[in-house]
Write a structure and sequence with these properties.
Blueprint: E1 2-4, E2 17-19, E3 22-24, H1 30-42, E4 47-49, H2 57-60, H3 65-80, H4 105-111, H5 124-143, E5 148-151, H6 173-183, E6 189-193, H7 200-206, E7 212-219, E8 244-249, H8 255-273, E9 277-282, H9 301-310, E10 316-320, H10 326-342
Helix pairs in contact: 1-10, 3-4, 5-6, 8-9, 9-10
Bound molecules: 7-[(3-aminopropyl)amino]-1,1,1-trifluoroheptane-2,2-diol and zinc ion.
7-[(3-aminopropyl)amino]-1,1,1-trifluoroheptane-2,2-diol (FKS) is lined by residues 19-20, 28, 117, 156, 158-159, 167-169, 195, 197, 225, 283, 285, 292, 321-322.
Length: 343
């Protein structure tokens, strides 16, 4: 299968994220993509391909124009304000305040974000655009008849909403790809998000739509980031009522201790929807050795995940999201794709 990859991911290389009350080296770092690429090539999973350039059209079908304009100019505005270091937001709108769009860059950073873990650097916009092109190239492979493809996106995307960044995400690669499949003549598209963290951005983008089903298995937001999205009671709105399914699991969940059953429930819902195409937001931060997460999936569980997804018999684009155990990250991704190919 096609493995789509761009070296431009390296342009997102933050100096620090605010985590656990301290500035620390970002876990979302360039070595992640290098580790995944190497492991996939070693495992003989597929052939490496460069992305094509799709321009901003497909990005603007998912993201608001003012947000895209902000992202494209944020570094320029930040550095014009005299700062030579990376930009992190420091304030957000609180209850009882005015949710207006401020004018200064410091205000805009807070207006368009939801966390302080996502640095904007000189290369952020180019890296984020490249990741969207990687996802769109994968969507094109699926539209051209491939049964599977892998988009090695970095920075990740599933936390980015139509007008909001955070959780290491700027442009929602999976949503841009899913919308690309819709525009490319698939009537019904599903997104299955198996990252440890809830894909709040993807959910919100498709929340009121009946043509894109969003199903997610993730750590219970009562205990885990992003805290304010991903509850089971969130089931969609308006035309999209019933087209969102959240399956939150307790921290500590293992494959047999709840994960497999949740995946079966997710697959059953997906079967009922009968999509023409599937986008999998693939995070392997569900791994027991992940440094920021608390599920207990083991290496041998990842081929089963891939095989069960293949069992749907739907053309599938895997879009890379999280996973931070650098020594096991590549092998776990290769295991999912290997299981899919065998399945
Ligand atoms: C841990 C704090 C963690 C941010 C977590 C972001 C997770 C990002 C991700 C993505 F796929 F987007 F990369 N704060 N105490 O893994 O969901
Ligand atoms: Zn995650």
């Amino acid at each position: 299968m096609d493995l789509i990859y761009s070296d431009e991911h390296r342009l997102q290389d933050g100096a620090a994220e605010l985590i656990d009350g301290r500035l620390q080296p970002p876990v979302e770092c360039p070595m992640r993509a290098d580790a995944i690429r190497e492991a996939l090539l070693t495992a003989g999973i597929g052939t490496l391909r460069e992305p094509s350039e799709y321009g901003l059209g497909p990005v603007l079908r998912v993201h608001d124009a003012d947000y895209v304009e902000f992202l494209s100019r944020a570094w320029e505005l930040w550095s014009a304000s005299g700062r030579t270091w990376h930009a992190l937001p420091l304030n957000w709108v609180g209850r009882g305040m005015s949710p207006v769009r401020p004018e200064s860059i410091d205000g805009l950073l807070g207006y368009y974000s939801f966390d302080a873990g996502t640095p904007i650097t000189p290369g952020t916009w180019r890296a984020a655009r490249a990741a969207a092109n990687v996802a769109l190239t994968g969507a094109t492979a699926i539209l051209d008849g491939a049964e599977g493809a892998f988009a090695l996106c970095r920075p990740p995307g599933h936390h980015a909403a139509a007008d909001c960044y955070g959780g290491y995400c700027f442009l929602n690669n999976a949503a841009i790809a899913a919308q690309g499949l819709r525009v490319g003549a698939m009537d019904r598209v599903a997104v299955l998000d198996v990252d440890y963290h809830h894909g709040n951005g993807t959910q919100s983008i498709f929340y009121a739509r009946a043509d894109v089903l969003f199903v997610s298995i993730h750590a219970d937001p009562a205990h885990e980031f992003p805290y304010f999205s991903g509850y089971a009671r969130e089931t969609g709105a308006e035309a999209g009522e019933g087209c969102t399914l959240n399956l939150p699991l307790a921290p500590g969940t293992s494959w047999e201790g709840g994960y497999r059953a949740a995946l079966e429930a997710a697959l059953e819902r997906l079967r009922g929807f009968a999509p023409d195409g599937l986008v999998v937001s693939l995070g392997v931060d569900t791994f027991e050795g992940d440094p920021i997460s608390r599920f207990r999936l083991q290496a041998q569980d990842y081929p089963k995940l891939g095989r069960m997804i293949r069992g749907l018999g739907v053309p599938t684009l895997f879009v890379m999201e999280g996973g931070y155990a650098l020594e096991a990250l590549g092998a776990n991704v290769a295991a999912v794709l290997g299981g899919f190919l065998e399945g």
